[in-house]
Each structure stands twice: as C-alpha cells, then as structure tokens.
Design brief:
alpha+beta; 34% helix; HNH; 331 residues; binds zinc ion; His-Me finger endonuclease fold; PUA domain-like; endonuclease activity
Length: 331
Amino acid sequence: MKKSELIKKLNIPPAKFNELIELGLPSVDDKQKTFDWDEVIKWKKTTNQEKIKKLVAGKIYKNEELVDTFACTSQGGMRRSHYTNSLVLITAEKKANIIYQDKWFGDTLHYTGMGQKGDQSFEYTQNKVLKNNDINKVNVYLFEYLTKNKYKYIGPVKLSKNIKPYIIKEMDIDGINRNVVKFPLEIQTENYIIEKDVINKEEKTPRQSEEDIKKKAFAASNLNKSIKGETASFRKVITRSYDRNKDINLYIKNLANGICQLCMKDAPFKQKNGEPFLHVHHVKYLSEGGTDTVDNCIALCPNCHAKIHELEDENDKNKLLHIIENRKASD
Ligand SMILES: [Zn+2]
Ligand SMILES: [Zn+2]
C-alpha cells in the first residue's frame, strides 16, 4: 500500500509517521513509499514489546508514554490492550475519594477492582480479565499515579499465589455500603527497592466534622481488622535506586558543622558515633535529573528537610542555592 493509505489506516498524524520511519518502520521499497500492512503490524508489535521491556521500575512516565507503550486507552485505572496482550493497572493513594483504597500488606498489594457505584463484580469487564489471569495469560503491569500526568512504574505483577481475589463491603462515592472486589497482587520485579525515608505528603481534604472523622476512622479500623487481624498496612514505595556517594554525604555534613543550613539551628541530637544528626538534601531532586554532586547537596535538620519537600517553597530553595554559591566562593 501507499504511504498515504498507510497513514490513514494507522490513524496517525503525518509527523508521527516520520517518527516511525526513523524508528525503522519497514517498507517494501527503500524509498519508504510502499508498505506491506502485515509487515508493518509485525514490526509495530515487536517495537511495543521492546518498549515494555525497556520500562524501568521506579521511573516516572507520562500518560502519553503509557498509551504509546501499551497501545492502551488514555483513561481508567484498568486498561486492557489486546494489541500488546496487556492489562495496565493504575494504583493511587486515593481512588476517586473512596475512603478505602488499594493497600499494601507486606509484599502484596490488595488492588481494588472497577466500578465506582453499586456492587462490584468479578464478571465486570477488566475485573474478569484480571480474575482469570492464570488462564488468559494477559501480562499485567502496575503503575502508581502520583500527581497530574506522573505515573511511577512499579513493575509486572501477578495474582498472589497465597491469597485469592475476594469481595468485601466498602462504601462507594455516595457513602453507600456495597460489594468491592480486591485482587491481591505480587510484584514480579526482583530488584525493586523500598525507599526508607519517604516523606508522605498529607493530602488536602475538605473540612469534616469531628463526628465524620471518627466514623471513618472506625470504619477503616474494622476493615483492617477483617482483612489481616490487626496487622497495620503500609504503603510500599517503589523507587529507582540512586547511588548516593558516602564521601560527598560526609563532606557536606562536615561543611555544615552540625548546623542546619536552612533554620541555622543545631542538629536536634548527636548520633551514637557523636556526629550531629543531619540529612543531606539534593536541591534539585535526583528524581528530577539532579546530580549527586557537592554543588547540589546541602545538610538540613529533619524538620527543615520535611518542610522543603512538603512546601517546595521557592524562597527556601533560593536560600539554599545562595548558601551553596557562597560555599563555592570560599573554597
Ligand atoms: Zn533546620
Ligand atoms: Zn531531600
């Protein structure tokens, strides 16, 4: 078929077509004018599988990248793609304001199924696909939704071998008790790392009455009891491992001489080895391309460190950058 026909059949803009050519889209002639549809599809499928393989656990991707990699839709928490034989699951701390969410119990994520109102069912669309995953062999991939258009790749997942999918009672968005399906999932990536000092941001919730807060807390307690005795659930955070150089860390702390470089107060306590307890913060985050270098590092007390990440205040950041500049000058 001709180039114009192919563009039409692929349903892509001409600019995207040139991108595909650069990526190696096969053509019958060597002038990229005539194409064989079967060859093109074969090539596209391989490219998608390669893209999936190249995903890095802990790395953050945009929604467009998810769509492009898996050839899935751009919306929804469970996205099926026949084209790449995959099911993309999105987990979030909060799903559509429902109080009960996906929860980690040890290494297992109890993932909530589809359906915001009324009873959920194992027979419903993607719930069915996931429930029958042992039979249908669809590849399942898990992402964590962070903020607008930021999805952290957690890795390929499978249904837990030990805990079967189950149904429990939870409230829907209207506060009505209903059946909810849960899929205990296990991560298949071996080299994921649990970040130890993640500072969780408190979510802004509208003001609620004390009575409401109490009601929700007890409802949540009852649920936690019913699932796993009284074991607390914790949220596992998958992250890329960044090499933080020990020498840089030590040097930065020495420069600070036991004083937090933001509030300028003494470190809150001394460690067992007598060193003042300070955190080393990367002014430009490593996760956002910052480097683990002397000129990007500064020592902070734990309070100020938490404040920096919580508020991300430009004034604080500028103050730290200013101190680093002065430090450089006096080297
Ligand atoms: Zn401080
Ligand atoms: Zn930090």
